[in-house]
Design brief:
The chain is α/β, with parallel strands linked by helices. It is built from 17 helices and nine strands.
Length: 488
């Protein structure tokens, strides 16, 4: 996202997590990649390099935190199987071009912080539950991180806090059924830790509510849906699950991808059946972890079904660690042939889903906006106004030389969030050009005519599909705020 790149520079320049000239979207950034990228930007001065390094670091931290979470409970080779499955679990042709498949890019930009903290918190929780040594530093860090992710959004509440509370309730019910009395608190240190993380997370939510930095949230509201909307919402939630698991490719007739998705779903189902029959799932680490991650996915599906939330498939990203943990658990009993089949499944998917993208990089295939980037740089403008779909990737390719000011649905209507808000004065207009596609040209010319603007065509692409214009007056205007947007 170009918005993250631009925000990286703003955070460094203003030395603030909440820059004055920025309006956030569905979440704030506290323990996220742009914050790390801002620190790196202060050293290297390149927004693209800083984000590339930050995403790489966060990707490594995802894998390291997953390893640490499982280290006392599984052999290294089995953890490696899980990490390979977490990468290979994303299914689809040209995977980095799909919203579900951008596992490490999207998680590293939006979701990495949540996932890393989830792994650390669950790791401490499982150690306390099984009487392993959890130390002092990491539990304290987990409390601080739970507070910080609570400030970011309610995502951590959904994927970590609610599952922890639900699992604790299951443990308590199981204890009462067997012992007919409440447990001794000395034996329930993990429960105290779960309650502490819950309180810390909710305190973070309260603090950000009181601070109230500028933001426009378009994911919906925390109100319950009317009964008539429950069934359509449940069907939408199922479609999101079908998409994140890759099952949709089977229905689309893309049999290779669809059958690989079926194989991975069967893997999770097989382990789930084993855990459901296990009488001590709340005392053994791996069955407990499977249950926690299953509750994470289930919580998101239930929220999307019963609450007024615009559920997108990528919100179900806990599916990936659930698949990974399933691989860790089944690798012990799979034997040689089972392990071979598992690696064959992962290898096939990695090749089919990723190779075309890797090949494009190796062959240095031309990008469809290369000509546009060159045209913009040759024009010498500092600001580029235009559709969000075009000016953002073009500005990103200039590595900060050009700043993008975007419209989304309304011609020249300033996108009111995750988009620069302070580059639309008449003074800015003198340093700006307007990028207009052939399909937008009539609307743009009509808008300029209504405003009484004098336009000059500066350049156009060889095919004439895009043109650069200069206007003698500012054509961009404020809108009431989007009802839908790039992250809807």
């Amino acid at each position: 996202m170009y918005g993250d790149l631009y925000l990286t520079r703003l955070m460094w320049e203003e030395k603030s997590l909440f820059p004055d000239s920025w309006v956030f979207g569905n979440q704030f950034y506290v323990l996220t990649t742009p914050v790390l990228a801002a620190l790196i930007y202060g050293i290297c001065g390149s927004i693209n390099l800083s984000m590339a390094l930050a995403t790489t670091v966060m990707t490594v931290l995802i894998l390291l935190s997953f390893w640490w979470m499982l280290a006392p409970f599984a052999e290294p080779r089995r953890i490696l199987v899980g990490e390979a499955l977490m990468v290979a679990g994303t299914i689809g042709p040209s995977i980095v071009d799909t919203i579900e498949g951008q596992l490490f890019y999207l998680m590293a930009s939006y979701y990495a912080g949540y996932l890393i903290i989830l792994f650390l918190v669950f790791g401490v929780y499982l150690r306390l539950m099984t009487r392993e040594d959890a130390g002092i530093v990491l539990p304290m860090f987990c409390l601080a991180a739970s507070f910080a992710t609570g400030m970011q959004s309610l995502r951590q509440t959904a994927i970590m806090v609610i599952p922890l509370c639900g699992f604790e309730l299951l443990r308590l019910i199981g204890w009462l059924r067997v012992n007919k009395t409440f447990p001794d608190l000395d034996n329930w240190g993990c429960s105290l830790f779960a309650v502490s993380c819950t309180v810390a997370n909710l305190m973070g939510c309260l603090v950000i509510f009181l601070v109230d930095p500028p933001n426009i949230s378009i994911y919906g509201t925390l109100t319950f849906r009317p009964l008539r909307d429950i069934l359509p919402s449940a069907l939408h939630a199922f479609r999101a699950l079908r998409s994140i698991t890759g099952l949709r490719y089977l229905l689309e007739g893309k049999w290779v991808f669809g059958l690989m998705a079926v194989g991975m779903i069967l893997l999770v189902w097989r382990v789930g059946r084993h855990c459901s029959r296990y009488s001590q799932f709340d005392r053994e680490a791996l069955p407990a972890l499977y249950c926690l991650l299953f509750l994470s996915v289930l919580t998101i599906l239930l929220i999307g079904t019963f609450m007024d939330i615009n559920l997108r498939s990528i919100y179900l990203f806990p599916w990936y660690p659930l698949l990974a943990v399933s691989g860790v658990m089944i690798s012990k009993e799979a034997g040689g042939r089972g392990a071979l089949a598992l690696f064959l499944l992962m290898g096939t998917n990695l090749y089919c889903s990723y190779f075309s993208c890797v090949e494009q990089v190796i062959n240095k295939d031309p990008w469809y906006l290369d000509e546009h980037v060159e045209m913009v740089l040759d024009s010498g403008c500092d600001i580029l106004y235009g559709s969000w779909y075009y000016v953002c990737p073009i500005a990103a390719a200039t590595d900060g030389e050009v700043v993008a000011g975007a419209w989304y649905t309304e011609m020249c209507g300033i996108l009111g969030y995750i988009n620069p808000q302070d580059i639309y004065s008449e003074r800015d207009n003198k340093k700006a050009l307007y990028l207009v596609s052939y399909g937008e040209s009539d609307l743009f010319l009509e808008h300029a005519d209504r405003m009484g603007a004098k336009l000059t065509m500066v350049d156009k692409t060889k095919t004439g599909s895009f043109a650069l214009y200069r206007s003698d007056i500012q054509l961009m205007y404020e809108t009431q705020g989007p009802t839908e947007g790039p992250l809807s």
